[in-house]
Amino acid sequence: MAATKPTKILSVKDQIAEQLRSDIISGEMPPQTKLNEKELAERFGLSRGPIRDVILQLTKEGLLISRNNCGASVNSVLDPKLQKLMIKLRRSIEEYAVTELNGNLTEQNIADLEDILTALQDALEREDYTEVTKIDISFHQYLIYQAGGEELVNIWYPYVMRMRLNYKRITSSSECVNEHRAILEALKAQDSATAIKAIKHNIK
Amino acid sequence: MAATKPTKILSVKDQIAEQLRSDIISGEMPPQTKLNEKELAERFGLSRGPIRDVILQLTKEGLLISRNNCGASVNSVLDPKLQKLMIKLRRSIEEYAVTELNGNLTEQNIADLEDILTALQDALEREDYTEVTKIDISFHQYLIYQAGGEELVNIWYPYVMRMRLNYKRITSSSECVNEHRAILEALKAQDSATAIKAIKHNIK
DNA sequence: GAATGGTCTATTGTCAACACATTACAATAG
DNA sequence: CTATTGTAATGTGTTGACAATAGACCATTC
Fold it and tell me: Of these four, A5, A203, B57, B112, which has the most CB atoms within 10 Å of its CB?
């Protein structure tokens, strides 16, 4: 058996969801934009069925808002008070993940995380900020998944999406890589307290 | 305009979701039970389309678990550590709600909540514990909705569902009503600290 | 001129049939 | 007898057509 890196297979719906999320987060589809099922179906070369599924999913994630018989539109930014609450909740989850993972990361895990950081640096240098955002998220997602599996990812994801929607501006700079590296280094050193501090500092 | 109580209109999908949630929480569909789309469609007298939507929704809520091309089944109970995390998160949300609502409840709100408590007492006396659970949830949901709207309900709901799934046993007794009454009384008295204590005591 | 009521169109909700993937089981080779 | 490959049956993913609804537009009335 060759030890080729397993290429990830994404379902059709996941790919569409991914694309739409990018469009929303990048600002290409600003809040209030209406989503037309037929249009989207044509754009992706599918029928309306799968599109509807994706819309339902993104609605549950909080990116879209749907009303019966009236279609879906891109959700608006959160009330600042709710925004603060969401940050608190997301921090709770990520603190949990870091605590759980402390001392339980395999070499493979660490290598994977290093790879993600490299990709992050790359995207940053290319000034591809949409990609930066996606990789940033994937770093965190990797930790969450390792700590709590798909279950935890599912409850964590909406917070990230809502937060991204609120900061449309590009937050990123070289700091971005440094902050994530600090998290990884603390995890490698099995220094739980520092890791938690680093995570808290990164989520804002 | 007659002052009739506005009867709630539920979409077809919401009604099906409601029914399936009941079946799962009541234990009628224990974990690992597979859901057959065609069967469900026949049971509700619909086609598979709406059923699929509901399955997707309940999957996002954490009640079901789905794999590509393999269908959905009732999710199993949570790892105790994750369970603890979810309780913490849910408490954060409900504390937020109670804090926000303190001093901001209208008379109508209070009357609505009183009605819910009455219904709760009723169901308890009838020993209809599935109904008790539903009304219990609706009490909390009312508060969450008033404090943060649909947005907040959407992130809160999965926690409740997962917690219910974990305690299949009937938790309820006369205490149930008392605990909720304590919350309401504290809110009426605009005593935020007591309200938070009461909420924390109720969520476990 | 504002408000009420009735069409008309665009868009979503639903359905039944088809295409495809997965599973379990039987057949075959080693 | 075990392991692998082929095949049939079951169930999910997708599609295109049809039904129902919301929102806009226009006419009519007071």
Answer: B57
Q: Where exactly are the structural domains of chain B?
A: 12-74, 80-202
Domain B12-74 has CATH 3.30.110.40: no
The fold of B80-202 is Four Helix Bundle (Hemerythrin (Met), subunit A) (1.20.120)
pLDDT mean over A23-33: 91
Q: Model pTM?
A: 0.90
Touching check for B145 and chain A: CB below 8 Å?
Answer: no
**CB of B120 within 8 A of CB of B136?**
yes
Cβ distance of A152 and B52 shorter than 8 Å: no
Minimal-distance CA residue of chain B relative to A156: B155
If pLDDT is split at 50, 70 and 90, which confidence band does A4 have? Answer: low
Instruction: Collect the ranges in chain B with pLDDT lower than 50.
Output: 1-3
Chain D: nucleotides under 7 Å from a protein CB? 11-17, 21-23
Cβ contact B60–A57 (<8 Å): yes
Do A144 and A97 contact (CB within 8 A), yes or no? yes
d(C-alpha A125, C-alpha A134), whole Å: 15
SS3 readout for B94-160 = HHHHHHHHCCCCCHHHHHHHHHHHHHHHHHHHCCCHHHHHHHHHHHHHHHHHHHHHHHHHHHHHHHH
Is A172 a residue whose pLDDT tops 80?
no
Confidence class of residue A1 from pLDDT cuts 50, 70 and 90?
very low
